[in-house]
Amino acid sequence: MSTRTVFSSLLALNILVVVAAIAIYKATGEDHFDESGFVTFFSFFQLVAIAVITGKIKSQSLLTSSPSLIWKIISLGFVFLAADEVLKIHEHVDKGIHLLFSIEETNITDRIDDVLVGLYGLVAVGVLWFYRSEIMKYPQAFPYFVFAFLLMFTMVAFDLMTSRNDFLPYVFGRELAPSISTFLFLAEDSLKVFAEFLFIMGFYVILEKVKSERAAGAVA
């Protein structure tokens, strides 16, 4: 399947899922961005898809000059993120830290789980930077990764702003804060699934390139 076809199909699917979730929320107040909503399960399947794609890059690259360790690390990382999506591991870690150290929940400590998500992103950037010599072989994937990380860290920023009813009223006033909070709330998980879509595309581009390298090597 061509990259353009995959891009168009996945983009349309992501838009459909997000628009449907927002429309339902606006019409009924039912939150499908919540952990039991269909957006969470859609996100789970996208993360699993990334793990599968990077796993295939690993298996395909075994017959090329590409080292496979980076792809194994990335694949396992997205397996963890998929598990975290449905099990909310970062939220349980947040609660565990409060219980372990007997910390009273405050406006700051209540954002530990959001910070953990940001750390996931920083670890991912660090891994890609450490193995940059391998990643740089596929410049066609760079734009996808850049925009994916941009959306991811924007999502974390939105999450930090809406975790407690303190920041937005202080900055925008109590009259505007609820409307802005609703907008950021809806945008937050929307950005997440679009970031996942871009990661899928970036790794799909690499997979297709690795396949072509393997085919060329077999012919040679």
Give the SSE map:
Elements: H1 3-28, H2 38-61, H3 69-87, H4 89-100, H5 112-130, H6 132-135, H7 142-162, H8 167-172, H9 177-219
The total strand number stands at 0
Number of helices: 9
Per the principal axes of the C-alpha atoms, what is the gross shape? globular
Order of helices and strands: HHHHHHHHH
Q: In what range is the share of β-strand residues?
A: under 5%
Tell me the radius of gyration.
19 Å
**Major sheet:** none
| C-alpha end-to-end distance | 24 Å
Class derived from helix and strand content: mainly alpha
Description:
The chain has 220 residues and is mostly helical. It has one domain. It has nine helices and no strands. The chain has helices spanning 3-28, 38-61, 69-87, 89-100, 112-130, 132-135, 142-162, 167-172, 177-219. It starts with a helix and ends with a helix.
Task: Name a few traits of the molecule.
9 helices, 220 residues, mainly alpha, 0% strand
Q: TL;DR?
A:
Helix content is 79%, strand content 0%. The protein is mainly alpha-helical and 220 residues long. The chain has one domain.
